[in-house]
Design goal:
Largest interface: A-B, 71 and 51 residues
CATH topology of one domain in chain A: Amidase signature (AS) enzymes
Number of helices of chain B: 3
Low-confidence stretches of chain A: none
CATH class of one domain in chain A: Alpha Beta
Strand order of the largest sheet of chain A: 4-6-5-10-11-9-7-8
Distance between the termini of chain B: 42 Å
Order of helices and strands of chain B: HHHEE
Strand content of chain B: under 5%
CATH topology of one domain in chain B: Histone, subunit A
Number of strands of chain B: 2
Number of helices of chain A: 15
Strand order of the largest sheet of chain B: 1-2
Mean pLDDT of chain B: 92
CATH superfamily of one domain in chain A: Amidase signature (AS) domain
Mean pLDDT of chain A: 96
Low-confidence stretches of chain B: none
Distance between the termini of chain A: 13 Å
Oligomer: heterodimer
Helix content of chain B: 25-40%
Chain lengths: 487, 95
């Protein structure tokens, strides 16, 4: 049952072979056993989860179940969930019990899904290794001396070790795709504006986007059917017709044109990752696809552009943590300014403070044009690179990350080297395009490698089809880490 | 461009984050290396390129000017550090 797909779990529930309560208890027990070595969860509340499971069982008995009714999902702790602690991995919100549900949480509740718990993450989603959480590092289930990636590392580790059937994540510069790659699961960052950001604690609002993290592309498609959709409470939510993300899963890939950006296969890509990605591309050719070399000439600039724009937006978004309306307040202070300064110095961790300071600087008088506006202009060039590329191909493929999972502590004292590990993912956020990571083999030391699939705007159904057909032909996505206790 | 210790202290003040002398030294080193990375941007000629603020070319929706939120003051103030009689308490700002 641990490796069952969402569809299979749904069928078991519908046939009354298992109840939602039993299913929820099974996963809670696994979390009990394995979470101490992974630290994938920040908050668990068995009573709340089981109450939802009971309600789901009643709904199933009444014949009113939807596909995901009764299935437990782990929720990244960036989503506000009513009466659950919603910490965003920060001391600043360590005691913050959300007074309302995020849109994503509402959608899962409406579908009758069970909230299994809130997953660990880099503080305010700022990090690529899950080492910046106030609640401690998350470990990679393939090797607990290594990082699971970030910032959705708790969700990634939980899905990989099958502590939950699937989880949610958010992706501002690669925070769904990079951890998915590093732990060997499937993750999708949708087109910007597809999933409402209401109740999703803001980091960089022009880049943040929520998406599914699951064992397969098919599971991601089923979750997208629940998560996506217009919501008037997010001013950037796009008014589009509801779509069925599973509709193209079974289309053959014959004639698919895959663009391979030469910049993604250049210096800096480690040989074991290149080897696994090449093998995946060979599999795609076998499935009838053809590959064509393309160029995304401004790839290198995406890192400096991102590390100006994201901190700029963060410095503005995180100004709200002032110790007045919610969250942490320093125990001792003098005047109002002193209260702000001490509250923020004590409530934020080092990486968050670094980024707030970068953002404050690039937005300050005298530097705004040289940094912030220049970065926005380059952002357009980066988006135009993709526009030109999609005239030559249907999807773009390459590695998700330049290496497999690195060691805990390896990059935590060197922000620049950490930032460079996002080289293949952040341009996609800058352009607002959808991107996926799909397990495609193993590198040195038996660590998972992820294949990145980038599609044109709103091409999620096609990308899920491209990933699903590969997963029908391969079994990388079904391999379980040693820590899961199953072979 | 090279940052100075005074720049770091000024930025920290603008961001309302208290930093000690030794923290300021650490930030100086880290922010300098990050800005070293960011300097690469300056080499590109971007004259005539429209800045891109947002991933989609959409305009903000307008709605009727009517009340859309219920009054949930108690629930929202329950999570505040210090409230009294429906008011948020902060240190005295006017003598």
């Amino acid at each position: 049952m641990l490796n069952a797909s969402l569809k299979e779990l749904s069928a078991l529930l519908a046939a009354k072979k298992v109840s939602s309560v039993e299913l929820t208890q099974t996963f809670l027990k696994r979390i009990d056993e394995l979470n101490p070595s992974l630290n994938a969860f920040i908050t668990l509340d068995a009573d709340k989860s089981l109450a939802q499971a009971h309600a789901a069982d009643e709904r199933i008995a009444a014949g009113k179940a939807e596909l995901l009714t009764g299935i437990p999902f782990a929720q990244k702790d960036i989503f506000c969930a009513k009466d659950w602690l919603s910490t965003c991995g920060s001391k600043m919100l360590a005691n913050f019990s959300a007074p309302y549900d995020a849109h994503v949480i509402e959608q899962f509740n409406r579908a009758g899904a069970v909230n299994l718990g809130k997953t660990n993450m880099d503080e305010f989603a700022m990090g690529s290794s899950n080492e910046t959480s106030f609640f401690g590092k998350v470990k990679n289930p393939w090797d607990v001396s290594r990082v699971p990636g970030g910032s959705s590392g708790g969700s990634a580790a939980a899905v990989a070790a099958r502590l939950c059937p699937a989880a949610t994540g958010t992706d501002t510069g690669g925070s769904i795709r990079q951890p998915a790659a590093l732990v060997g699961i499937t993750g999708l960052k949708p087109t910007y504006g597809t999933v409402s950001r209401y109740g999703m604690i803001a980091f960089a609002s022009s880049l943040d986007q929520a998406g599914p993290m699951a064992r397969s592309a098919e599971d991601c498609a089923l979750m997208m059917n629940v998560m996506a959709g217009f919501d008037s409470r997010d001013s950037t939510s796009l008014e589009r017709e509801k779509e069925d993300y599973t509709r193209d899963l079974n289309q053959p890939l014959r004639g698919l044109k895959i663009g391979l950006p030469k910049e993604y296969f250049a210096e800096g890509l480690s040989a074991d990752v290149a080897c696994a990605v090449d093998a995946a591309l060979a599999e795609y050719r076998k499935l009838g696809a053809e590959t064509v070399e393309i160029s995304l000439p401004n790839t290198r600039l995406s890192i400096p552009v991102y590390y100006v724009l994201a901190p700029a937006e963060a410095s503005s978004n995180l100004a709200r943590y002032d110790g007045v309306r919610y969250g942490y307040r320093a125990p001792e202070y003098g005047d109002l300014t002193d209260m702000y300064q001490k509250t923020r110095a004590q409530g934020f961790g080092a990486e968050v403070k670094r980024r707030i300071m970068i953002g404050t600087y690039v937005l300050s008088a005298g530097y705004y044009d040289a940094y912030y506006i220049q970065a926005q202009k380059l952002r357009r060039l980066i988006a135009q690179d993709f526009e030109a590329a999609f005239k030559q191909c249907d999807v773009i493929m390459g590695p998700t990350a330049p290496t497999t999972a690195f060691k805990l502590g390896e990059k935590s004292d060197d922000p620049v080297s950490m930032y460079l590990s996002d080289i293949y993912t952040i341009a996609v956020n800058l352009a607002g395009l959808p991107g996926m990571s799909v397990p495609c083999g193993f590198g040195e030391n038996g660590l998972p490698v992820g294949l990145q699939i980038v599609g044109n705007y709103f091409a999620e159904a096609r990308m899920l089809n491209v990933a699903h057909q590969y997963q029908l032909a391969t079994d990388w996505h079904l391999r379980l880490p040693p820590l899961s206790g199953e072979e | 461009m090279s940052l100075t210790l005074d720049d770091v202290k000024r930025i920290a003040h603008l961001a309302r984050i208290e930093v000690s002398e030794s923290e300021a030294e650490t930030y100086l080193a880290q922010l300098s290396s990050i800005f070293g990375l960011v300097e690469e941007m300056q080499a590109v000629d971007t004259r005539g390129i429209e800045p891109m603020a947002h991933a989609q070319d959409v305009v903000l929706r307008l709605r009727e000017d009517v009340v859309s939120e219920a009054n949930r003051r108690d629930a929202y103030q329950a999570v505040a550090p210090q409230v009294e009689a429906g008011l948020y308490l902060v240190p005295k700002v006017i003598e």
